[in-house]
């Protein structure tokens, strides 16, 4: 059996296990495909944070849709399609918002300098209304966080509040990196649902 055929067979087995109620099967899928999906999305978006968020979103969508996955194409083809569509949407959304500000503030001011434009230009000053809206939003996120499953909340805090890497979180929680990624994706999905899909 070729490597490709073996992969397809393993994916089918994992899908069947997931549909039978085995949640760990999805964690295995995340472990198998995370790096490949991330690399493909990063090539399209060329931005680490966007690539990470789109990769997480792809797995969230896959988790939601897997129950109805009929297997007309292979699982990997289906997952890549989800990720590609999300990456394209993110790119066009970004482009529409930024097309009148075509200079990246993350780029160095000169080839021989590490100083970026963001460090040279002062940040935009927030109005009192902006601050009030931001604070209200933070309060609502905090309230929604309290409603999350403890394990999911813990993983999300380590990632988004303490800015730990997946490897550091795995070490701290004594779990696999695949489980860390799966928990964070599930936490984001739950948070989004609790906030009425405001967190896009």
Written account of the structure:
The relative contact order is 0.10. With 200 residues, the protein is mainly alpha-helical. α7 (150-160) packs across α9 (177-194). The protein has two domains: 3-98, Rna Polymerase Sigma Factor, Chain: A, CATH 1.10.1740; 126-194, Winged helix-like DNA-binding domain superfamily/Winged helix DNA-binding domain (Arc Repressor Mutant, subunit A). Helices cover 70% and strands 0% of the residues. It is globular. InterPro entries: RNA_pol_sigma-70-like, RNA_pol_sigma-70_dom, RNA_pol_sigma70_r2, RNA_pol_sigma70_r4_t2, RNA_pol_sigma_r2, RNA_pol_sigma_r3/r4-like, WH-like_DNA-bd_sf. It comes from Pelagicoccus mobilis. Belongs to the sigma-70 factor family. ECF subfamily. This is Sigma-70 family RNA polymerase sigma factor.
Summary of the model, kept short:
With 200 residues, the protein is mainly α. The chain has helices at residues 3-19, 24-45, 48-65, 75-98, 117-120, 128-146, 150-160, 166-173, 177-194. The longest helix has 24 residues, at 75-98.
Give the count of helical stretches.
Answer: 9
Question: What is the averaged pLDDT score?
Answer: 80
User: What proportion strand?
Assistant: under 5%
* H-E string: HHHHHHHHH
CATH superfamily membership of the largest domain = RNA polymerase sigma factor, region 2, helix turn helix motif
Radius of gyration: 19 Å
Domain count: 2
Q: What labels describe this entry?
A:
200 residues, mainly alpha, Rna Polymerase Sigma Factor, Chain: A, Arc Repressor Mutant, subunit A, 9 helices, globular, RNA_pol_sigma-70_dom, DNA binding
